Amino acid sequence: MLVLKQQLQQHGIAQSTMAQAVSVSAAAIAQLLNHNQWPKHHQEELKQRIIDFLTGKAIDTKDSFKAVQEVATPCTSTASQTNKDDTMLLAKQVLNPAAKKHFGLFRDPFADDVMQNSQDVFTTPDIRYVREALYQTARHGGFIAVIGESGAGKTTLRRDLTDRINRENAPIIIIEPYIIAMEDNDAKGKTLKANSIAEAIIHTIAPLESVKRSQEARFRQLHRLLKESARAGFNHVLVIEEAHSLPIPTLKHLKRFFELEDGFKKLLSVVLIGQPELKLKLSERNQEVREVVQRCEVVELLPLDSHLEDFMTFKFSRAGKEVQDVLDKGAIDAIRARLSSSTRRGDISLLYPLAVGNLVIAAMNLAAEFGIPAVNADVIKGI
């Protein structure tokens, strides 16, 4: 650790403030302060910018760049622990050109545009089950809710379902109501109601047919169109993303959509995709939706945890690179430690694809900035 770190603390100056003032990343400043590691380019210029910054704050720079032994102090503050948890996740990261050149990559292994087809979808036994459950629900009927944290891969699986249906030319019509501005109450946004879902179904199945004005006529029209389409050999699946924002009345109405039938044949399957709040709404303890809960299969997308190494290997192989050329073994362990924590309520894992990708990209950018051949544990800790 450098004396400079102590000086910043003594004067109440945030590392990010100095980083912005001297035009380098906050991660680079952290590496400098904690490990005395300098970027490989323009070291003297950076040193002078830091000196100018400190001088402007009336701080003596004579000993600023000397190394001192850091003394660990126990953290007893709940606020400190909260701050640590808050900084665990990073905002969206972009792999910069210098990092691509440094690691011999021509594209970002974690970017959305890398996902071109089903072969680009990383799977575990759990993901394969969810993947197949979605398809079987669309193909043969059912009511399923896929629940996962932000960045767990829900949207990827929804895209994969659409891609498979198109690729296999399956006789399945996907109905996706628009969810822009959807909220679970009208005070915060616009709730998705049964009438809007009915309109979406009608417009998808018979785009040239006008929607009836009265509610009774509209639902009779809906039922007729579904029966005609089913008799023509089609299955229908209603897919609602951001389903955690569905109001309770609409969840209850979905059960009635699901029960539309022609003889023994169900006419409409239902797929809900949402964040953990949806699981709370579909809880067995929630008496308001007990009839929905009895008919809806709930599946969760779990964190990568024991599959982290396989995930990294897969992502880099799709970008034409061996993972060991970018990350050493210590880096993998550091990623797992960085995105995991223990609380009084138990262990918490944030090892979801998006969080892992953002952390690794930030680490690759930092390693390139310092000329480090492969991302190691110190680089991960410096993010």
CATH topology of the largest domain: Rossmann fold
Cα-based radius of gyration, to the nearest Å: 26 Å
In percent, how much strand structure appears in the residues? 5-15%
Spatial strand order of the main sheet: 2-3-6-1-7
- CATH architectural designation of the largest domain: 3-Layer(aba) Sandwich
Could you spell the SSE succession in H and E letters? HHHHHHHEHEHHEHEEEHHEHHEEHH
Domain module count = 3
- Helix percentage range: 40-55%
Low-pLDDT parts are: 71-87
Average pLDDT confidence is 88
Structural account:
With 383 residues, this protein is an alpha/beta fold. The chain contains 17 helices and nine strands. It folds into three domains: 1-73, 434 Repressor (Amino-terminal Domain) (Orthogonal Bundle), CATH 1.10.260; 83-124 and 304-383, no CATH class; 141-300, 3-Layer(aba) Sandwich (Rossmann fold), CATH 3.40.50. The protein has helices at 3-10, 15-21, 26-35, 43-56, 78-86, 97-103, 125-140, 154-167, 194-205, 215-231, 248-258, 276-281, 290-293, 308-318, 329-338, 353-370, 377-381; strands spanning 143-147, 172-175, 235-240, 261-262, 265-266, 269-274, 297-300, 340-343, 346-349. A hairpin with a 2-residue loop joins strand 4 and strand 5. The longest helix has 18 residues, at 353-370. The radius of gyration is 26 Å and the shape is elongated.
Q: How is this fold's topology laid out?
A:
Layout: H1 3-10, H2 15-21, H3 26-35, H4 43-56, H5 78-86, H6 97-103, H7 125-140, E1 143-147, H8 154-167, E2 172-175, H9 194-205, H10 215-231, E3 235-240, H11 248-258, E4 261-262, E5 265-266, E6 269-274, H12 276-281, H13 290-293, E7 297-300, H14 308-318, H15 329-338, E8 340-343, E9 346-349, H16 353-370, H17 377-381
